[in-house]
């Protein structure tokens, strides 16, 4: 069946009223297929929703995943009401299907979900103003502190070992060794760069194992386009893309935001001379994140924030290269060397952070009170 008919089939499984007037691909996520669907409803005008085909190549158990999302958003909704916020805009609202399920399946077996579309807000692929980045740090910190009393044991692990950098290094080495599409010869420089920094893969995971860093309920995918910024107030409005909310390390949430948002260029910039980790952006995010965590971070966690940035960037670069070597089966790509370009920006950022290591630590020290 063609995509349009599949979409119509899926839409008919939800209890929508009104006439569909537009369906179009939406956003720049690397994982799910996201569509904006607009309905024309009598007396209400145009009502948009988000429809997503979940990536079951990556998320093996979409039913458990949606149970996580429903539980987390229900929990957040109560907290938002308690502090007088707007639960319709400050967290995702899952749309149930006609049978009351938070997902539906099309005739080809794909799993789909719907969310209320949050209007008057934007997800950015790059930082436009320092203040927006500060606000996103505040919001990601607050997200974590709101979930600090969420019962972590009720969460399914949607991707095992998601930020186990040590395990990811092993997968990377296997991909190099197997070299199934004969690409390794062209990326020796990048492979060697990663292998020379093998010890980075152990750092945070050992601190977690030694209980130097506590496990918390974290987002695990905190890049800038996974937060909606309010167009009017410019505050971080809603944290989205909750597929990977699982027990994890706070420093990883911090680090993933830095690798994406504190970069002076897009994640897939080809001209590496444009790619640096901007220390001013690093500072504004640090300030926002620590504030947003509302005193919950331990001293060890705060001191490990620069390491979070370095390791998350290293891990992401390694993941892009692994996917390139394995034939681009994980991240969506627009052209054949897309994952390689993405890998190169991450490795450039790693090298830049190494140079700026003292400065990064000095900045973090300023915000440890
Ligand atoms: P992926 O896992 O592929 O990254 P996301 O859940 O992040 O998918 O969604 C992709 C994009 O769709 C987001 O970056 C954002 O721009 C947009 N989006 C997702 N959910 C909503 C929503 N409820 N309201 C408005 N925009 C949304
Ligand atoms: C993916 O889903 P999206 O596009 O927000 C990936 C992250 C990577 C990121 C790199 C589930 O995020 O882990 O850091 O791409 N998400 C998953 O841009 O693997
Ligand atoms: Mg996303």
UniProtKB/TrEMBL annotation:
Parts forming coiled coils: none
Record-annotated Aminoglycoside phosphotransferase domain positions: 23-260
Listed PANTHER family: AMINOGLYCOSIDE PHOSPHOTRANSFERASE DOMAIN-CONTAINING PROTEIN-RELATED, SLR1880 PROTEIN
Name this polypeptide is given: Mucin desulfatase
Organism ancestry: Bacteria, Bacillati, Bacillota, Erysipelotrichia, Erysipelotrichales
């Amino acid at each position: 069946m063609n995509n349009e008919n599949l979409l119509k089939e899926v839409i008919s499984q939800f209890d929508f009223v009104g006439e569909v007037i537009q369906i179009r691909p939406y956003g720049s996520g690397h994982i799910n297929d996201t569509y904006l669907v607009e309905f024309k409803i009598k007396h209400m005008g145009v009502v948009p929703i988000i429809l997503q085909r979940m990536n079951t190549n990556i998320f093996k158990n979409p039913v458990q995943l949606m149970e996580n999302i429903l539980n987390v958003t229900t929990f957040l909704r109560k907290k938002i009401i308690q502090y007088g916020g707007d639960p319709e805009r400050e967290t995702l609202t899952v749309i149930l299907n006609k049978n009351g399920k938070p997902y539906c399946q099309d005739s080809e077996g794909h799993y789909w979900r719907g969310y209320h579309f949050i209007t008057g807000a934007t997800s950015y692929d790059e930082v436009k103003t320092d203040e927006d980045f500060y606000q996103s740090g505040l919001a990601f910190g607050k997200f974590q502190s709101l979930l600090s009393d969420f019962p972590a044991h009720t969460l399914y692990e949607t991707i095992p070992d998601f930020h186990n950098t040590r395990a990811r290094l092993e997968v990377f080495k296997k991909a190099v060794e197997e070299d199934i599409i004969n690409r390794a010869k062209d990326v020796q420089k990048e492979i060697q760069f990663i292998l020379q920094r093998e010890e980075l893969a152990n750092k945070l995971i050992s601190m977690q194992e030694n209980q130097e860093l506590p496990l918390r309920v974290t987002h695990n995918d905190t890049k800038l386009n996974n937060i909606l910024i309010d167009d009017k107030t410019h505050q971080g409005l809603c944290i989205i893309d909750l597929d990977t909310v699982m027990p994890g390390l706070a420093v990883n949430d911090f680090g993933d935001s830095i690798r994406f948002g504190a970069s002076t260029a897009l994640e897939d910039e080809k001209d590496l001379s444009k790619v640096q980790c901007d220390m001013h952006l690093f500072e504004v995010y640090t300030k926002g994140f620590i504030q947003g965590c509302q005193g919950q971070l331990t001293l060890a966690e705060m001191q490990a924030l620069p390491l979070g940035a370095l390791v998350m960037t290293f891990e992401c670069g390694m993941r892009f290269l692994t996917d390139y070597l394995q034939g681009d089966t994980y991240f969506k790509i627009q052209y054949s060397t897309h994952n390689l370009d993405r890998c190169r920006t991450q490795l450039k950022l790693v090298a830049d952070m190494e140079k700026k290591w003292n400065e990064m630590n000095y900045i973090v020290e300023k915000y440890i009170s």
